[in-house]
């Protein structure tokens, strides 16, 4: 199988040496997204809810580049800088994954890139 690197200008550019996503066969592996505005390439101002919305919008844009939607996501990983934000993040997450939510892991980590509050990565199958 061939590996296809995925890129869209509708989502922020990678902040390191990685691809926004990689497609192998019918599976799309989307790198962790943080709350960067793709137009300015800057972190957005806002609380954890605003950050979560931006992260999910970024994921949606990358999936769209592969003709996928959030309905195609089979696994998500949510990283929080404070597990006390779980309910706030979960409420926003549930709005985006209202139908057929994927399997998910959620964990608190010591620190996230650019000191954001939330990072999410997903795997989708088309």
From TrEMBL:
<dbReference type="InterPro" id="IPR035959">
    <property type="entry name" value="RutC-like_sf"/>
</dbReference>
<protein>
    <submittedName>
        <fullName>Endoribonuclease L-PSP</fullName>
    </submittedName>
</protein>
<dbReference type="InterPro" id="IPR006175">
    <property type="entry name" value="YjgF/YER057c/UK114"/>
</dbReference>
<dbReference type="GO" id="GO:0005829">
    <property type="term" value="C:cytosol"/>
</dbReference>
<dbReference type="Pfam" id="PF01042">
    <property type="entry name" value="Ribonuc_L-PSP"/>
</dbReference>
<dbReference type="InterPro" id="IPR006056">
    <property type="entry name" value="RidA"/>
</dbReference>
<comment type="similarity">
    <text>Belongs to the RutC family.</text>
</comment>
<dbReference type="GO" id="GO:0019239">
    <property type="term" value="F:deaminase activity"/>
</dbReference>
<dbReference type="InterPro" id="IPR019897">
    <property type="entry name" value="RidA_CS"/>
</dbReference>
